[in-house]
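Problem statement: downstream parser choked on a complex file, so we are re-checking the raw output for the adenosine-5'-diphosphate run. The parser issue turned out to be on our end (a line-ending mismatch), but while we're here, posting the original submission so the record is complete.
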Amino acid sequence: MAGKVIIISAPSGCGKSTIISALMNSGEINMQFSVSATNRAPRGQEINGKDYHFLSDEEFRSAIATDAFLEYEEVYPGRFYGTLKSEIDRIASNGSNVVLDIDVNGGLRVKHELAEKALSIFIKPPSIGALRSRLEKRGTDSMESIDARVDRAQYEIEQAPRYDVTVVNDDLDTAVAEVKRVIVDFLNND
Ligand code: ADP
Ligand code: 5GP
């Protein structure tokens, strides 16, 4: 794998996509987003091939069978997410560093495998209450899906000390600046 890997994990609804978009749009860092595959349905304005590669259950199973994934996880019951080897190859061939937006189990595993080649960043919400309220305000998930995300958030937050860096997303601009600073430091450090 050419280039370096930036692993970003956070409880769903914490603001990870918002932060990653702000970093990408700034165009100041040589990194590209690895578009994961999932068998969940698109939500809100999500675009197939940009936010995720949306696969059917059968397509996801077939991708597992053909060894298409660097890693994959059943993040919620019946809901699978995976990093495609083809995405990593595509980004590496562009001479870019890779950004992975993956759950804590996948994130810790990739960090363990890549060690110094990867930087793992955990983004925390200011509180569980704030997380729930962001998910409700986003308005893209059912109450059941919000409950599942909040339940899982407790487990994920417990894993934060195992990451290289933790950033609290309270004020968005501050969080973006902090994430940018740690990434630039990491990429400049050979
Ligand atoms: P994730 O990708 O982690 O699931 P999103 O980026 O979709 O989360 O953010 C969830 C919601 O919270 C969105 O509606 C987003 O606009 C909002 N949000 C993100 N960061 C903040 C913040 N610092 N303060 C308040 N709301 C935020
Ligand atoms: P969401 O449904 O909110 O987009 O994502 C749910 C969770 O799946 C998030 O924690 C997100 O980081 C994780 N996720 C997204 N893509 C991948 C992936 O390729 N691999 C793993 N392990 N988790 C992923």
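For whoever reads this later: DSSP finds seven helices and nine strands in the chain.
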